[in-house]
Design goal:
The protein is of the alpha+beta class. About 15% of the residues lie in helices and about 35% in strands. A hairpin with a 2-residue loop joins strand 1 and strand 2.
Amino acid sequence: LYTIKFEVGYMLSCLMIEIVIHREGVGFGFTVCGENPPIVESVAPGSPAEKAGLQKNDIVISINGLSVKHAPHELVINFMRSKSVVSVVITRDVEGYYNYYLYTTTTYTSMQHAVILKY
């Protein structure tokens, strides 16, 4: 079920989703690249991340309630490595393209009309 969120009269082409991933073995089964914000670079087939619903190109907003939208890459990686379970809030494009300006200029806390889907 996909729900589109609205803000200030504009239809945004993305979802905000919370995904809970439990570590199995040595990792969660996904990698992130970049920063400001970090983006899911890959999701291993059959991994805990794939089973939980994480997808390539998801934009990571927060992990376990900690905003990582403007966090350095190393901080994000080290924070996840120290956890056995992560709750990852992501935004996901639903129209096949990224409206990067809206993602980076709209803060998570200001999305008063955002719908958060929980997997």
